[in-house]
Design a protein that fits this description.
The chain is of the alpha/beta class. The chain has a single domain (2-109, 118-214), classed as Bit1, CATH 3.40.1490. Helix content is 35%, strand content 19%. The chain contains seven helices and eight strands; from the N terminus they run βααβαββαβααβαββ. The strands form two sheets. A four-stranded mixed sheet has the order 2-1-4-3. The protein has a four-stranded mixed sheet with strand order 6-5-8-7. A hairpin with a 2-residue loop joins β3 and β4 (86-91). The longest helix has 18 residues, at 138-155. The chain is globular and about 45 Å long. The two termini are 27 Å apart.
Length: 216
């Protein structure tokens, strides 16, 4: 699944806001009606590529765009989220070799954003905590919080998933210091939080826990 991050040169977004937008766009695409089936059981237009993706090794790759590149990305099937001054677009997944040229030409790396210090997460909003000790790039972190949002949605019952969808899948992304991370890992063990374990293809060691999602 490509995730396109809008990072303008003159007025870049806050890192936490961009990661929140990436997480929201990812889960919004995964739960979009076009991924499901219609009232007569007919498959939605995105269902086949989505199921092929989830049946294989799930991977997400973040790319950056600005200006005309960002506008061109809006023409490729997917969902854009604008949140706290940041924009991210999750695209319908597919084989890497079949990636739309408007997306394949976008850079994967080369641009990062400094860590910011956002306010405390709003009450009632799920929080995706990143292990700050891993010092992931914004592109890597975007893929990880996107996966965390997927796992968190999958752990909800239908009622709570529907309520989250009505909010636009609003979530908060925050960095966890070592003390908080130890507390969060205990919650994972207790079954009150959801963890993302990375396969270790880029930046982090295989099996690293990168993000832990907790209810608001």
């Amino acid at each position: 699944m490509p995730i396109v991050l809008h990072i303008s040169k003159q007025d870049p977004p806050a890192r936490s806001a961009l990661l929140e937008a990436a997480a929201m766009a990812t889960v919004a695409l995964c739960l979009d009606p076009r991924v499901g089936t219609g009232p007569e059981g007919e498959p939605g237009p995105w269902r086949e590529p989505y199921l092929a993706w989830t049946a294989a090794r799930i991977r997400k790759v973040s790319r950056r765009a600005r200006g005309a590149q960002w506008r061109a990305a809006q023409e490729v099937d997917g969902i854009t989220v604008e949140h706290r001054g940041a924009q991210a677009r999750a695209l319908v997944p597919g084989p890497v070799g079949h990636l739309d040229p408007r997306i394949s030409r976008l850079q994967i790396g080369g641009t990062d954003l400094p860590h910011d210090t956002p306010d405390d997460p709003p009450a009632g909003v799920p929080v995706l905590w990143i292990d700050a000790a891993l010092d992931m790039t914004v592109g890597k972190a975007a893929a990880q919080v996107g996966h965390a949002a997927m796992l968190f949605a999958g752990a909800l019952d239908a009622e709570h998933a529907g309520a989250w969808a009505e909010s636009g899948f609003v979530c908060a992304v925050r960095d966890a210091d070592p003390a908080r991370w130890r507390h969060l890992t205990k919650r994972v063990a207790d079954g009150t939080a959801v963890a993302v374990r990375d396969a270790g293809f880029t930046e982090v060691a295989p099996g690293s826990v990168t993000v832990i999602a907790v209810p608001g």
